[in-house]
Structures are given as structure tokens and as C-alpha cells.
Amino acid sequence: LGWKFYDADDYHPLENKKKMAEGIPLNDEDRIPWLCALHDILRREDASRQDTILACSALKKMYRRVLISGASAIESNQPEQPGQNPALKILFVHLDGPMDIIAGRLEKRRGHFMPPELLKSQFDTLEPPSAPENFITVSLEKSLPETVLEIESAILRG
Predict the structure, then answer these.
(1) Into which CATH architecture does domain 4-157 fall?
(2) pTM for the full model?
(3) pLDDT value at residue 116
(4) What are the counts of helices (DSSP H) followed by strands (DSSP E) for the chain?
(5) Crossing angle, helix 28-47 and helix 14-21, to 10 degrees?
(6) Main-chain dihedrals φ then ψ at residue 20, nearest 5 degrees
(7) Average pLDDT, stretch 113-133?
(8) How do residues 57-84 score in pLDDT, each as one tens digit?
(9) What is the pLDDT of residue 41?
(10) What does the alpha-carbon distance between residue 73 and residue 43 come to, in Å, rounded to a whole number?
(11) What residues have CB less than 8 Å from 150, skipping those under 6 apart?
(12) Helix 61-69 vs helix 28-47: angle between axes, to the nearest 10 degrees?
């Protein structure tokens, strides 16, 4: 697509990386500043009219609201008020699959700070996207080319 790509894991503060490396799951207090920083990146790219893909484990509905609206999403569940920065238009792609498939992929990953043992805590935290969120769900049981094609098609449909 020629879009800019960001991996959210590259933006975790050192404290978060250390915590995960020790097998300790992150909590909301750990994740919110990280998500706000990611929102700022997305806001900057949007302001420069740069289409962007962000790979991010936005596990909770609140986390996805922070990506869309920034810190203001934490204080209020209300829509943006006139005069405030408008919410970003984001299509969330929920990559859905059974724990054993994801665990197998994590086992093959080398040099990452999050050990596969934390996968269960992520499943426990997960709030799958639902209406009125702007999302698609793509099965991880499909081949990589099928997955990419499904995501590209959804993006191009708008």
C-alpha cells in the first residue's frame, strides 16, 4: 500500500519491557501512557496526510478509544466536543485465532521481550471489538496471503 508502518512494541518504555521480560503482565497504568504516545504518532501522521498502519495489541475497548482520541478518552466516554481535536478515523483489524496457533507463532519469535507465557494474560484481558467500533475480524487460521488480501480489501473499501 505504500503506507508508513509502526510496530507499537518499539514504543514501550523500558519499564514495560522489563516487566514483560520478567513474566509480569502489563496493567492499565502501564499501557495508557504508551497508548497516548501511539495516539500522538497517529495524530502527527494524520496531520501530514500520511496513511499509517500500526501493529498494536489494543486489547481493551478503552485502549482503542485512547488510540482514536488520546488522553481525553480516559476522562470521558463522551464524544469529542466542538473545538477539540476530532477523533482519528481508524480501522481496527482484530486478528482472531485459537490460543494454540498464536502460542506456536510466539514460540518461533526470537529476541522479543514478551515471553509466550504472557499469552494467557492477554487472552484474559482481551475485549474483542464490537459495534459501534470500526473494525474487521480476520481469522489467523487463514494463510498469510489470504489474511493480507482480506485486510487490504477492507482498507480499500473504506
Answers:
(1) 3-Layer(aba) Sandwich (3.40)
(2) 0.86
(3) 67
(4) 7, 4
(5) 130
(6) -65, -40
(7) 86
(8) 999 999 999 999 998 888 765 544 444 5
(9) 97
(10) 14
(11) 136, 138, 142
(12) 30
